[in-house]
């Protein structure tokens, strides 16, 4: 065992200067896409993949170690160890064969969040990203994917309500240009956060919009909802995505309420006994923390004549960012979830005395 470990370490040292690539590979269960960091002798048309990089053979300060660690967390065996109830799933094969959708959906969400971090970190590190072909054919560096983290991608949901039902289309607005998906080769890497491959590019959807919704529209342009299903469709599906996409509607009303955030600072206690100031924003009866994924609230009303009206009460991200900036300039300890921590109550009181009057302005 010691000899094997020594050989692994020596092999790792020998390969340390070779170029690294990120390989994305579909897993056999739960629609999970795995990731592995591999070194190759050289970047070329036909690349020989060296064994996957392993965190235990890397120095703590190795720049690629955090990516390798996340990739290892996506390995099926590690997902089983972390998330499976061993009393129910005594064997790993039983876990991956489960038909319990609550379990599979939860594990898929956790895997998707890790994959999102991996792809972003790999792009920031300048690593080529490749998607492993399903047929096992060789990887070509020419087929590396362009990661478009900065490009604006907005799902556009188009509804046309008629007497006999509703026609629904889903398209994408990429950097302002509206694009239909029918006939496109689109591969979804993760549901939410949504990541997908289109025309050799990796795109990211805004949080909350499930990328799986894109797939039916690569095969057909429109989905028809019959009149008898209209009520449930409006109350269960349309309202769910009304605040998560651009909506183009015909046959029912969509209105945006103009609301402005009121910043609030509330006191609280941490589990370790420290005193906290929590920032939040109030919109009418609703309150949101800075890190909340909720983009607002949607109210659906249905009149006696059968007409539908959606009112979107959306958060004002520009004004929220303005208030956060003011508080950061007052105290740079403010965390991304809107919290300032104090060791004692006296420190908190002193802070409020010194900064309260200025912040109220």
Description:
The structure is a single chain. This protein is of the alpha+beta class and 361 residues long. Helices cover 28% and strands 30% of the residues. The chain contains eight helices and 19 strands. The protein has helices spanning 2-15, 65-73, 76-83, 92-96, 101-124, 230-241, 317-330, 345-360, and strands at residues 20-26, 33-39, 129-131, 146-148, 153-162, 165-174, 177-179, 186-190, 195-198, 201-204, 223-226, 246-250, 253-256, 262-269, 275-283, 286-288, 296-302, 308-314, 339-342. The strands form five sheets. Strands 5, 6, 7, 11 and 12 form a five-stranded mixed β-sheet that branches. Strand 1 (20-26) and strand 2 (33-39) form a beta hairpin.
State the order of secondary-structure elements, H for helix, E for strand: HEEHHHHEEEEEEEEEHEEEEEEEHEH
Helix content: 25-40%
The biggest beta sheet reads:
5 strands, mixed
Which stretches are low in confidence, meaning pLDDT under 50 for 5 or more residues running? 1-11
Report the C-alpha radius of gyration, rounded.
Answer: 25 Å
Q: What portion of residues belong to β-strands? A: 25-35%
- Quickly count the helices: 8
Shape: globular
Derived structural class: alpha+beta
Beta strands, count: 19
What's the end-to-end separation, in Å? Answer: 68 Å
Mean of all residue-level pLDDT scores: 88
